[in-house]
Each structure stands twice: as structure tokens, then as C-alpha cells.
Design brief:
It contains 14 helices and 14 strands. It is an alpha/beta fold. The chain has two domains: 194 residues, Rossmann fold (3-Layer(aba) Sandwich); 166 residues, P-loop containing nucleotide triphosphate hydrolases (Rossmann fold). The radius of gyration is 26 Å and the shape is elongated. 36% of the residues are buried. The structure holds magnesium ion (MG).
Amino acid sequence: MPSTTVQWVTHETLLIATAGDQTPSSKIAAFDLDDTWIVPKSKRVHSKDADDWKWIYVGSPDKLRALVKEGFRIVVLTNQGGLTNDDKEEIFRTKVENIAATLDGVPLLLVAAKGRDHFRKPRLGMWEYFATHLNGGVEIDLSASYYVGDAAGRPNDWTPGFKKDWADTDRKLALNMRVDFHIPETFFGNQKTPPLPLLEFDPAVYLESVVDKAAPEPALALDAAARQQQPDVVVFVGFPASGKSHAALKHFVPNGYVHVNQDNCRSRAACLKLAEQSLQNKSSIVIDNTNPDRKAREGYVALAKKYGASVRCLWFRASLDLCNHNNAYREHIQKADHSHVPDVAFASFRSRFEEPLVDEGFGEVIPIDFVPQFESDAEKQSWLMFHF
Ligand SMILES: [Mg+2]
């Protein structure tokens, strides 16, 4: 077998391998790597070493060679978040060099996303980097290009005896790329593609469902005259990234409410202290924390009672998937300051959550739906992509 020289370069958290002739093309045949081209020989989930892999379909290299003859450029876009140290990266590099050797001259461009950032599938960063910097300025014909991957969100027994997919990120990537999507069993094998189920969270479907709904009413903040009579306590409840801080800063703070927020106060005790000081000064307050359960909320209800304030609960009902979407969008696309909310914050809210009820002492519990607001069409198009 002739040896194939693989060149490696890095760009930020990307690892990029090229082998053979790198002629740009408008037609891109893009692929996932693991469980699409190759599987571990050892039947483990992940390769144990650089030799622990095999082609799933022995005919794949010939198929790829035929695609190159048809003018396609072969590109692999693979998430490799497991390459957390130099040893693991070295094993991966050697494995890719071994794969390239079996391709026997078929030109290969492989881009691996090592980080959990905007390059990671289903986010578009890896593809955009390729299209902008690695294809010689040749415009890509999306209608002629496609992506092939195994993470399609198929349920158990999508074909009798086949396990469900562990994820749907490859299918979402293809949707973000606006290219056709194929499963490896059809592309390289001869299985029929089953009807693919609806994605669990589709931002376009969500946006359509709230198109007629209003965002939190500005009128929810009592005006100065009303608050002079009686200070107002507003307790928020909702996942991180459900729109709470946006509502607090847009509708309540400009109306003179004191913003009580764990990010600023640092602790629960400090939040309660600021709340009490504010009520002593006859200032209204908005409690912009997740406040998942009755216990988290009762201190504020008690303070309202003590100082003769009205107290209402605004329940931001956005689902976990929607909030994960918003969170990933803010962190990786908008690159907002208060970016990273750890997964544990979502899990903790979900496990502690108790639906807010009037009998906790609230004058009212007001459900709020998340209605995305966009400043431009570009921002809207970006929010509509799959971000997690
Ligand atoms: Mg895969």
C-alpha cells in the first residue's frame, strides 16, 4: 500500500488533516467519521488505540474514490471533544493517518472539533471555517452537496434489531448547512432510509407556535404612582436562559425596581439582604433568580408581607430544550458576556422545580411564554439554527 502523507494544522480548537490533492470544488460530499466511516474493531464505544478501527462498509473507500471522479471534494467534519490531552490527540492523529493510508490516494480533508464551542456540531462553525478558508474561495453549490452521518435521531428498532441513535447532531448539522442529509446505512450500504422522526426541539416550529403571542407585557411593572402607595415584589421562576434577566432589565429596572439577582449578589443570603434593605426604603424589587421551589421563594413572600408590599410571581415557562437552545445561542453565537451556564444549573432547576402557586402567598402567578425578539433578520436566521 503506498504511503499517504497527512499534513496537520490547527486553528483555534480545530484540528485539520489533509492528504493528497486538495483541489477546491463546488460539490462537497461531507461525512461524519465515527459510526459513519469507521467503528472500533474492539466493539468498544471508543477506539482503545490507533489501530482499533475498521471501515464499517468495505466498499466505502471505492465509493469515495468514485465521488472524487465525479468532481466531489471529500470532507470529514467530526466532533472530537474527547481529545483532552496530547496522548489522546496523538492516538487520534495516528488513527487518521492509518485511515488515510487505506484510502490509497483518495484526497481527504478532515476537520475535527476538539472544543465545546461554536465549531462543535450541530453548530455551523466547522463548516463555515471550511467554506471560508479551506476551499480556495470556490463557492459551494449547496444543492449538489450533502452530509452523511449516523446521529440522525432514529428511534429504537428503526430497522428491526437496530438500536436508537445516541444523538441527532448530524441531521441538525445538515439542516444548518442547508444540504441534503443521508444515513450511512443507505449511503454506503443498502438499507432503506426510514422516515426520520420529528426533532425534539426545532426552533422554527417553536417560533411558529408563539408568533401570535406577546412578549412579557411592559405593563406588568407597576408605575411609580402605584408603587408609591405600596412597594411591589416580583418573584421570577424559570430555567436559566428563559428570558428572565431580559424582562427584568427591559420592563422592571427602568421603572425603578431594584434588581435582585444572584449573579450580582453572589449568595442567597445577600439577595435576601438586598431585598429587605430595598423594601425598608420603600423600593419595589424584582427577584431575577431561577427560584425553582417553594423554599427558594418563601423568603421573598415573607418579606413582602412584613413590609406590606404586593407580591406576584412571574413564571417563565420555557422548556428545558428551549432554554438549552437559548443558552447555546447566547454562548456560542452571540458570545454574550454572561455566557456560560453549566449543565448542572439546568439539571438542578429541573429536579427541584415546584410549580408556583397562589397559595404560597402570591397575589398572582402570571405565566410568561418565551417570545424571541430579533433586532435584524440575520439575528433571526441565526437563532433559527440548531445550536445544541
Ligand atoms: Mg458518528
